[in-house]
Design goal:
8-stranded mixed sheet; 324 residues; alpha/beta; 4-stranded mixed sheet
């Protein structure tokens, strides 16, 4: 099963300031702020929802196709993804813009000052999925994640026109979208991904009830944080899957992306929805135990031992046959 994942590709530059921002602000001079903070450390981490999902799928051996836009500074990041089983041949490289970047400084009170540079991500709207499909010999599913909004709309319409099944996954972009855009992006989706809060926001912005949305998509996949995930289909009982026990909660960033990576890999293997959700929850647990969205490792024996403990021998036997 050939799965393409569209969405953002970015790098995060994360710095720590040992003092307090509030101590540096002069109340009657806030209209002319000019500050520079000497920071203690810098962490440069790979990110972007599409790249995070593809990284996880690559570790699981399903060879995902990354579709997005990056800058000429993408070479090192591309090499990293290539080494971890991701097909990066359909990434558009901008001739004039850098890869999207988030730059953030955190103080001792955990206050943050950050900036997000969209950069090359704005060129995602120029990517044609037909060219991607022609290059790889066809697409069985396209996951349309948070990206340049016009690019998300173009990919959705092209999937409908060409009859390619697609998953709608707005995540961070839902806050800036209006009801009309959301209706366009979700109608006819084979899968609709969201967390609980986004689920309510989708219903509020579209004016559609939960039942109405279930009538417009094949499957509604809602992540529930520590409680796992719920999968709903019109006229059928929901499937609920819990999360494996975590060893430590180090960093929740990227956990949703990891779930999608595991779930989509399960679909690629051809296992059932419950089993795919279990794989997603297991991968998400590995990510929450690690600082950074692509800093975790996947060792087959360790993964299967924990998967067996969480979901039983029968589930593990089915997954073990697919895990590289």
């Amino acid at each position: 099963m050939r799965i393409a994942v569209t969405g953002s590709i970015a790098t995060d530059h994360l710095m720590t300031f040992p003092g307090r921002f509030a101590d540096q602000l002069v109340a009657d001079q806030l209209h002319t702020v000019s500050l520079s903070f000497l920071v203690d450390n810098l962490d440069v981490r790979r990110g972007g929802v599409a790249a995070n999902i593809c990284f996880g799928m690559g570790l699981l051996g399903t060879r995902p196709i990354l579709v997005g836009a990056a800058g000429s500074d993408f070479d090192e990041y591309r090499a990293w993804l290539d080494r971890h089983g991701v097909d990066t041949g359909s990434v558009r490289i901008s001739e004039v813009l850098h890869t999207a970047r988030f730059v953030c400084t955190t103080d001792a009170d955990h206050n943050q000052i950050g900036s997000f540079y969209t950069g090359a991500m704005s060129e995602a709207r120029l990517i044609e999925l037909k060219a991607v499909a022609d290059r790889v010999g066809g697409l069985d599913l396209v996951s349309i994640g948070a990206d340049d909004p016009e690019g998300m709309l173009r990919h959705t319409e092209e999937c409908r026109t060409r009859g390619i099944p697609f998953a709608a996954d707005f995540s961070q972009q839902i806050a800036r979208m209006d009801g009309d855009e959301i209706r366009i992006l979700l109608e006819g989706a084979t899968y609709l991904f969201s967390n609980e809060y986004e689920k309510g926001l989708i219903e509020s912005k579209t004016g559609w009830t939960d039942e109405e949305i279930l009538g417009k998509v094949g499957h509604r996949v809602t992540t529930l944080g520590a409680r796992g995930v719920r999968i709903e289909r019109a006229g059928e009982e929901p499937i609920e899957v819990g999360c494996p026990e975590e060893n430590v909660k180090a960093d929740p960033t990227g956990v949703g992306d990891a779930f999608r990576a595991g779930f989509l890999s399960g679909l690629a293997w051809g296992v059932g929805l419950e089993r795919a959700a279990q794989v997603g929850c297991m991968l998400a647990t590995l990510v929450i135990e690690t600082v950074g969205t692509q800093e975790y490792t996947l060792h087959r024996t360790h993964f299967m031992d924990r998967f067996t403990k969480a979901y039983g021998h029968e589930a593990a036997a089915e997954v073990r046959t697919h895990l590289a």
